[in-house]
Amino acid sequence: MAKQILSPLPGTFYRRPSPDKPAFKEVGDTVAVGDVIGLIEVMKSFNEVAADQAGVITGFPADDEEPVMAGQPLVELG
Amino acid sequence: MAIRKLLVANRGEIAVRIIRAAQELGIRTVAVHSLADADSLAVKLADEAVPIGPPAASKSYLKIDAILEAARLTGADAVHPGYGFLAENADFADAVEAAGMVWVGPKGDSIRVMGDKVAARIAAEAAGVPVVPGSDGRIDDPDQARAVALAIGFPVMIKAAAGGGGRGIRIAHDMEEFERLMPQASAEAKAAFGDGGLYMEKVIERARHIEVQVLGDGTRAVHCFERECSLQRRRQKVWEEAPSASLPQAMRERLCASAVALAEAVGYRGAGTLEYLYDDASGAFYFIEMNTRIQVEHPVTEMVTGVDLVREMIRIAGGEPLRYRQEDIRLTGHAIEVRICAEDPSKGFQPAPGTISALRVPGGAGVRFDTMLYQGYTVPPFYDSLLGKLIVWDEDRASAIARMRRALGELAVEGLPTTRPLHMLLARDPEVAQADFHTRWLEPWLERNAHRLEETPE
């Protein structure tokens, strides 16, 4: 089964550090444990999401600026 | 025009507060809401509810078109913006009026003038209200900036003329630092606001935050005395009182009279607040800005004056003249409000949404709890962490603090952490009891008391 990085918190998922910056990661990028893959905004406070698994990104099940629940997959790894 | 149906363009506890005021006036209410707020108390209490978009505020509560469309669909004839979101958006105020509806607030042009730091300062000075020593208007020329810095004395605060929300603010302690920071501030202002113009003012090192509540009908204005909100964390107020314990009566009269003068000078309509810094060592006060809306902490003023501010702002918007003369408004007793937020004080005030598994609301004499909570409600993660405001009134400040301790002891919000433990400690603190604080008092106190906040005192 494909590995996934899950959202640690409920909130809004952002794939980029700010609206005018490129995404932290793209499909095809290699991810090491501890790499920041996105931000979760919870009640106006921004929390970095660090990868807890390593691999190559095959997809983003959650879109940029999408509301997510805790435990919802953010990144799929091949 | 008498208001028959009021659309509330907000959420949370303030939406509930506005709906209650409208109901008491016999006005029907429309709650607009995001998809994340379909279960909100405001939606349950309003006569009608209209979904206006996805959870993100930028796609719902900040969507002017969607809100106007909801008003059209429901036949609303007035809009109350609450606080935050579009409350100080002059274009929204204008759009509501252009659509033939009543805007419960000041005219768009009043919002524009008072929302611009330089224009507000000029209006204040013209009305004889003392302002923080600084540049008389915007500065675009470096030589002029240096001359102004020397004239007002260091430390100097450099702000973006077009700025807001603390962005672009720098503090220079001497000329060397000023030379280094001024170009940075200008570049940041240009990048953030498209306008590199600067504005400078003296830093008041140890001050209290004191604000005056005003009500105006466009011609005449009255004040409802002051609030003190010196206990702040990251420039956010956490504990508010009315009246200020630090203000001598003669100073109170001068401060409040200055607020009325400014409100009348700009033809202010509705409820507004003039914010001041007050240096209790020298007795000097300085106007800093005006908020052209109802404020979070308005209930402490209601408790000490008996004036229902939200109801009055709706009446004024509906075309009634101000119902009070200044001498009708009396200050009685002392009120304190604490903000109960979904934040964990033991973990650096990390926000923590969740589901309310149990709720016990304090009661008894002189206690009020303005909240959007109910048992089983799930607090969404997309908005501000404010859950409710616990307000107490008593005959004097010491009794009000004792009543606050008692009410905090009764309050139980289960299912998520709240800031209740912080307020339990503050309500027992000897310096708080003496009102011996200023705007930079709370943050070092939090560092010293971090271990006590981890224990979650009962």
TrEMBL record, chain A:
Record-annotated Lipoyl-binding domain positions: 1-78
Q: Which GO terms describe its biological process?
A: fatty acid biosynthetic process
What are the GO MF terms of this UniProt record? acetyl-CoA carboxylase activity
List the CDD domains hit by this protein, alphabetically: biotinyl_domain
Cite the annotated pathway. Answer: Lipid metabolism; fatty acid biosynthesis
The signal peptide annotation in the UniProt record is: none
Q: Does the keyword Acyltransferase apply?
A: no
Lipid biosynthesis listed as a keyword: yes
Sorted keywords for this record are: Biotin, Fatty acid biosynthesis, Fatty acid metabolism, Lipid biosynthesis, Lipid metabolism
Matching PROSITE patterns: BIOTINYL_LIPOYL
**A single cellular component GO annotation:** acetyl-CoA carboxylase complex
Q: Where is this region: Disordered?
A: 1-20
* Function field: This protein is a component of the acetyl coenzyme A carboxylase complex; first, biotin carboxylase catalyzes the carboxylation of the carrier protein and then the transcarboxylase transfers the carboxyl group to form malonyl-CoA.
Supply the name of the protein.
Answer: Biotin carboxyl carrier protein of acetyl-CoA carboxylase
The taxonomy runs:
Bacteria, Pseudomonadati, Pseudomonadota, Alphaproteobacteria, Rhodobacterales
Automatic annotation (TrEMBL), chain B:
Q: Which domain of life is it from?
A: Bacteria
Its keywords, alphabetically, are:
ATP-binding, Biotin, Fatty acid biosynthesis, Fatty acid metabolism, Ligase, Lipid biosynthesis, Lipid metabolism, Magnesium, Metal-binding, Nucleotide-binding
Listed Gene3D superfamilies:
ATP-grasp fold, B domain
Annotated pathway, please?
Lipid metabolism; malonyl-CoA biosynthesis; malonyl-CoA from acetyl-CoA: step 1/1
Q: Pfam families annotated for this entry? A: Biotin_carb_C, Biotin_carb_N, CPSase_L_D2
Residue ranges of the Biotin carboxylation domain? 2-447
Q: Which SUPFAM superfamilies match?
A: Glutathione synthetase ATP-binding domain-like, PreATP-grasp domain, Rudiment single hybrid motif
Q: Does the keyword DNA-binding apply?
A: no
Return one GO MF term.
Answer: ATP binding
Q: Which EC numbers characterise this protein's activity in its record?
A: 6.3.4.14
Q: Which GO terms describe its biological process?
A: fatty acid biosynthetic process; malonyl-CoA biosynthetic process
- Subunit structure and binding partners: Acetyl-CoA carboxylase is a heterohexamer of biotin carboxyl carrier protein, biotin carboxylase and the two subunits of carboxyl transferase in a 2:2 complex.
What the entry lists under NCBIfam families is as follows: accC, PRK08591.1, PRK12833.1
Name of the protein this chain belongs to: Biotin carboxylase
- What organism, scientifically named, is this protein from? Paragemmobacter straminiformis
Taxonomic lineage per UniProt? Bacteria, Pseudomonadati, Pseudomonadota, Alphaproteobacteria, Rhodobacterales
